[in-house]
Amino acid sequence: MVMRILIASASGQLGRATARYVLDRVPADDVILATRNVDALAGFSADGVTVRRADYDEPESLPAAFEGADRMLLISLHELGRRVDQHRNAIEAAVAAGVRHVVYTSYIMVDPGCPSTVVPDHLRTHELLDGSGLDVTYLRNGLYAETPVTQILPPAIARGVLVDNTDHARGAFVHRDDCAAVAAAVLTSSGHEGKTYDVTGPESLSFADITALASKVSGRPVGYASVDDATLDEQLRAAGIPDDVRGMIVSFGVSLRAGYGEPVTDTVQRLTGRPARPMIDLMEQHRTLLTGAPTAP
Ligand SMILES: NC(=O)c1ccc[n+]([C@@H]2O[C@H](COP(=O)([O-])OP(=O)(O)OC[C@H]3O[C@@H](n4cnc5c(N)ncnc54)[C@H](OP(=O)(O)O)[C@@H]3O)[C@@H](O)[C@H]2O)c1
User: Fold this and answer.
1) Same domain (yes/no): 56, 158
2) Are residues 63 and 165 in the same domain?
3) Which of 101, 111, 198, 239 could form a disulfide with 135 if both were Cys (CB 3.0 to 4.6 A apart)?
4) Does residue 83 lie within any of the structural domains?
5) For position 214, which CATH number holds?
6) Cα angle for residues 167, 168, 169 (degrees, 5° grid)
7) What is the mean pLDDT of the chain?
8) CATH of the domain at 34
9) Pocket of ligand 1, candidates 6, 7, 14: which has the most ligand atoms within 8 Å of its Cβ, to mutate?
10) What domain range includes position 287?
11) Is residue 65 part of a domain?
């Protein structure tokens, strides 16, 4: 029997990359992409992939979008708090549409004891999925390596120092593209129902290690300094960072110090057949961004 695979939120970075890997493995006829922005996926439509409009904020848009799908990739959304309702709408629509198996992109830190402010929404989504009657696979994606490389390092290089509250704690940062390759492997093969995979990079690095690598790649000196939680919170407040983002950043550091990002797994190698890529590969890909970071006034 043909298994039709639905990738929802398909125009996002993880969604698109997963779609490309899936299409390396199965015919376009067997793939449905759902998105709020059908035009953004015109290239996939031109290749014969079914592209449908779906917005989790408009539950009435979901039945037609999910129709005929057997297995679905549910990518977690961004907005803290609000996304639980959005995920609920998607899960209820998946059940109604007859989807049998949902693969959910969870997070490596998801644990009831973890203080990270992004964790409660995932825990609630796990409860919704566990109570849905669907077969579920949890992909506990590691800390995206893209976050330090493209967001944290450029301003740190410009200032000459990276300041946070992680105090040499380590994280097994993973390329988002490796998360996509794992998701595609799970979507296109059998036997993953009821399983949980921790998807991590190949090494555990501290932010001191990361700044040292960035200095090497960019040729620009960048130091590392750890401050306590209250000091970091105050610095972020003074910089005008909104409450929710500040809470997310500070609680990330607390969670990293508690070891929630540290474990290294071989999931990427095991499920895709090739090793997870190290952080420095991503820095090389973004060398121009890192070397070209403007100097602070
Ligand atoms: N592990 C980590 O370190 C880490 C870091 C950051 C984020 N994340 C999580 O990983 C997820 C995927 O990351 P990404 O980089 O691919 O994010 P992204 O590029 O921002 O994609 C997120 C997608 O969410 C979809 N979306 C937003 N509102 C929606 C709605 N109302 N209904 C349906 N879809 C909606 C959009 O898809 P369409 O435009 O196609 O509708 C958007 O493209 C994030 O959403 C976040 O939960 C993890």
Assistant:
1) no
2) no
3) 101
4) yes
5) 3.90.25.10
6) 95
7) 96
8) 3.40.50.720
9) 14
10) 146-171+202-262+277-291
11) yes
Q: Is there an atom of ligand 1 within 6 Å of 78 CB?
A: yes
Residues facing 71 on adjacent strands? 5, 101
Mean pLDDT of 20-26: 98
Joined tokens for residue 234: 């105050």
Asked, for residue 269, whether it belongs to a domain, the answer is no
Q: Model confidence at 292, in pLDDT bands (50, 70, 90)?
A: confident
Residue 297: pLDDT over 90: no
d(CA 33, CA 5): 8
Whether pLDDT at 36 is above 90: yes
Average pLDDT, integer, range 228-235: 98
Verify that 10 and 136 share a domain, yes or no. Answer: yes
Reported as a single tens digit per residue, the pLDDT across 98-148 is 999 999 999 999 999 999 999 999 999 999 999 999 999 999 999 999 999
Number of domains in the chain: 2
CA atoms within 13 A on the CB side of 145: 30
Cβ atoms of residues 79 and 63 within 8 Å = no
Q: Is the CB of 35 under 6 A from ligand 1?
A: yes
Mean pLDDT for 15-35 is 98
The residue whose CB lies within 8 Å of the most ligand 1 atoms, and thus the one to mutate among 75, 87, 251, is 75
116 lines ligand 1 (CB under 6 A): no
| pLDDT of residue 288 exceeding 70 | yes
* Ligand 1 pocket, residue 55 CB under 6 Å: yes
Q: Taking Cα atoms as reference points, which of 105, 113, 229, 241 lies closest to residue 169?
A: 229
Cβ of 141 closer than 6 Å to ligand 1, yes or no, is yes
107 lines ligand 1 (CB under 6 A): yes
Is the entire prediction scored with pTM above 0.85? yes
CA of 75 to the centre of ligand 1 (A): 7
Q: Which of 104, 275, 276, 91 is nearest to 187 (CA)?
A: 104
Same domain for 218 and 91, yes or no, is no
